[in-house]
Amino acid sequence: MDNSKHKIRAFLSRFFQTAELKEEDDIFALGFVNSLFAMQLITWVEKEFSIQIEDEDLEVTNFSTIAAIANLIARKNCHAQGA
Amino acid sequence: METKLTERQQLDVADFERFARAEIAPGAESADREERLQIEVIHKLARSGLLGSIVPAKWGGRGLDWFTYGLLHETIGKFCSSVRSMITVHDMVSLAILKWGNDQQRDRWLPRLSRGEILGAFAVSEPGVGSDAKSIETTAERSNGSYILNGTKKWITAGQIADLFLVLARRQDRPTAFLVERDRAGLSIEPISGLLGLRASMVGELSFRQCEIPAENLVGREGFGLVSVALTALGLGRYSVAWGCVGIAQACLDASLQYTNRRRQFGSLLREHQLIQEMIAEMATNLKASRALGERAGRLKQEGDPSEVMETFVAKYFASRAAMRAAIDAVQIHGANGCSSEYPVQRYLRDAKVMEVIEGSHQISQLLIANHAFQESENNYSGFHVDE
Fold first, then answer.
1. CA angle A79, A68, B371 (to 5 degrees)
2. Residues of B in contact with A36 (CB under 8 A)
3. pLDDT of chain B along its 388 residues, tens only?
4. In this structure, is residue A66 part of a structural domain?
5. Is A47 within a domain?
6. So what's the ipTM on this one?
7. Residue B379 and residue A17: Cβ atoms within 8 Å?
8. Contact by Cβ (8 Å): B167, B204
9. B100, A55: Cβ pair inside 8 Å?
10. What is the 3-state secondary structure (H, E, C) of B106-168?
11. Domain B121-223 carries which CATH code?
């Protein structure tokens, strides 16, 4: 989980400053996110962590903070292993 | 370095070329003049499997890789941008369902779309909304297990003949994607004529008046219609338009080389005049660059690399500008003949202009590309980088 949080932070820092960004800070509310960025984030998460984002994953709460994204990845990986 | 085609890709491209020359080229001028595509062309596309390009074989499609898909659009785009754009919007619907639909939707719609039994079209633009897609005004209200749509969609490619529309509407103030069948009560369609370019792409205006659709026609989640569904579809649209512009530029170059090889003025062939050679050099160079950018975008799309979003914008921006410049020069090279409907270059020019407007306008592309350049510089992210 910590490793994925580190990678998420590194990805986000390609788009905006993340030095002050806490794990629970809402990146949408902070105004960093437009729809194109959100699209790139989804694509990156899929490729980096070898998971498929599906329509049931499409809740803002799954993508709004570093911690939330890491949780989503962990849940998807759990399901994949359990299948 | 230009990508070498595999044997499979070479066979596919030869197929595309053969089909386009035989079935699309002969009618392209009259289709443009009459603002009407013969429905038989669509049927032939369907029979040739060219309406199922990006759908996997599981659902009856060809499952083309992104590079080959680009080559399809270059080849068709050389002969007729109107036909090419109709393939685009159809595939946008297929891809959106493939990626964001549920299993029932995939099983229900993908086989029929892949076989070309039904034609898809993409409905986001409105009379008051183009680039600012999140500000769409068409609404979707819930009512007894259905959705009720109200609003207007305009400039819808293939709108006059499509069977299935992917519509972006405002649901509780957030963009949401829905499938709407043509024969739904409350949907009426008017043709739009008198367009500058892509005149045979059967453009229509859709009016939704208390148009009721079942809840199962929702694609993806409420509120994610733009970020997921529409942007996936628009990504395909942008990529195919970039390659379509490579096709226009190639057509302009081919026409210009042919013309300057036989037309004489002042006792010599046009090809010997240096100012003509300058225009040919610009055309040839920009064509190569456009193709290289398209290949790069295709490779990144194939790898699922998120940088493909920006790279596709760059490819579309450059290729549409290259096509426009090539077409302007092609008309100039042809002189008065270039202004006549007896030659195709005036059609290439009109179509190229539309390509600078659609799928990410010239100006929007510039803003995004500049912003991205600033972002990368501020966050110390350069063109060459080593993955962690």
1. 120
2. 231, 309, 368
3. 457 889 999 999 999 999 999 999 999 999 999 999 999 999 999 999 999 999 999 999 999 999 999 999 999 999 999 999 999 999 999 999 999 999 999 999 999 999 999 999 999 999 999 998 889 999 999 999 999 999 999 999 999 999 999 999 999 989 999 999 999 999 999 999 999 999 999 999 999 999 999 999 999 999 888 888 988 999 999 999 999 999 999 999 999 999 999 999 999 999 999 999 999 999 999 999 999 999 999 999 999 998 999 999 999 999 999 999 999 999 999 999 999 999 999 999 999 999 999 998 999 999 999 988 988 887 765 555 444 4
4. yes
5. yes
6. 0.79
7. yes
8. no
9. yes
10. HHHHHHHHHCCCCCEEEECCECCECCCHHHCCCEEEEECCEEEEEEEEEEECCCCCCCEEEEE
11. 2.40.110.10
Residue of B7, B359, B376, B388 marked active site:
B359
Contact B180, B149 (CB under 8 A): yes
What CATH code is assigned to B7-119?
A: 1.10.540.10
Residues of B with CB below 8 A from A58's CB? 100, 220-221, 223-224, 227-228
Q: What is the pTM of this model?
A: 0.93
Number of structural domains chain A divides into: 1
Closest residue in A to B132 (Cα–Cα): A35
Smallest CA–CA distance from B96 into chain A, residue: A55
Question: CA of B308, closest CA in chain A: separation in Å?
Answer: 8
- Would you mind telling me the total number of residues written for chain B in this entry? 388
Rounded to an integer, what distance in angstroms lies between the CA atom of residue B159 and that of residue B175? Answer: 21
CB contact (8 A) between residue A35 and residue B308? no
Pairwise CB contact (< 8 Å): A14 & B381: yes
B359 among known catalytic residues: yes
Question: Are the beta carbons of B379 and A16 separated by less than 8 Å?
Answer: yes
Residue A74 maps to a domain: yes
